[in-house]
Design brief:
single chain, about 230 residues, alpha/beta, Rossmann fold, 2 domains, 6-stranded mixed β-sheet, 5 helices, about 30% helix, about 15% strand, His_Pase_superF_clade-1, Serine/threonine-protein phosphatase PGAM5, mitochondrial, membrane, EC 3.1.3.16
């Protein structure tokens, strides 16, 4: 619903039909001008033995991975607008480390990006079978995250933007499928390393391109994990 035609009222206030010239002018006013660059970062390796979220802190290797990811993002030389991150501990800690390499970039925490079960995968897998209710609870929230964050630029945005989202593998994989208009049930066919960078580009006309998926080429091989 970001198409210019969806953003205007096709009838005038006096109920007369909108003229072609006026319609063209109003459509032009609603058209996006800028490109959005979305960098989706998977959190670093964390303590799998933690029973509660607060106990699932980053491992020493996970902290190293976050440093490497932060250094990589800084080396791109881009003017990042913001870092939006999942409110879960492992994502928050990853964000804090990354942000040290990007001074001045504001951080925003959100529950929408928390890990979960987005949609039942096709084909199913034997090693991961959440309760059906999880798909209804988590799926609606993760879909809301997609609709809230992944869209063309606002018509008022004049310059290209560069935004970082630090969250989780399931969330990122689902968002990639939805953004590319692939069947979202295929999200589990992708695999993402810890601290990896996935880069989506959203053009003013709404077209989306995937520049990189799960890139960890900036990490030494012995530092790469997928836990």
């Amino acid at each position: 619903r970001r198409e210019p035609l969806a953003l205007i009222n096709l009838k005038k206030k006096n109920n007369e039909e909108t003229g072609e010239e006026e319609l063209a002018s109003r459509l032009d006013h609603c058209k996006a001008k800028a490109t959005r660059h979305i960098f989706l970062i998977r959190h670093s390796q964390y303590n799998l033995d933690g029973r509660a979220d607060k106990d699932r802190t980053l491992t020493p290797l996970g902290r190293e991975q976050a440093e490497l990811t932060g250094h990589r993002l800084a080396s791109l030389g881009l003017k990042f607008d913001q870092i939006i991150h999942s409110s879960m501990t492992r994502a928050t800690e990853t964000t804090e480390i990354i942000s040290k390499h990007l001074p001045g970039v504001k951080k925003i925490s959100t529950d929408l990006l928390r890990e979960g079960a987005p949609i039942e995968p096709d084909p199913p897998v034997s090693h991961w079978k959440p309760e059906a209710v999880q798909y209804y609870e988590d799926g609606a929230r993760i879909e809301a995250a997609f609709r809230n964050f992944i869209h063309r630029a606002d018509a008022k945005q004049e310059e290209d933007s560069y935004e970082i989202f630090v969250c989780h593998a399931n969330v990122i994989r689902y968002i990639v499928c939805r953004a590319l208009q692939f069947p979202p049930e295929g999200w589990l066919r992708m695999s993402l390393n810890n601290g990896s960078i996935t880069h989506l580009v959203i053009r003013p006309n709404g077209r989306v391109a995937l520049r990189t998926l799960g890139d960890t080429g900036f990490m030494p091989p012995e530092k790469i994990t997928r836990t």
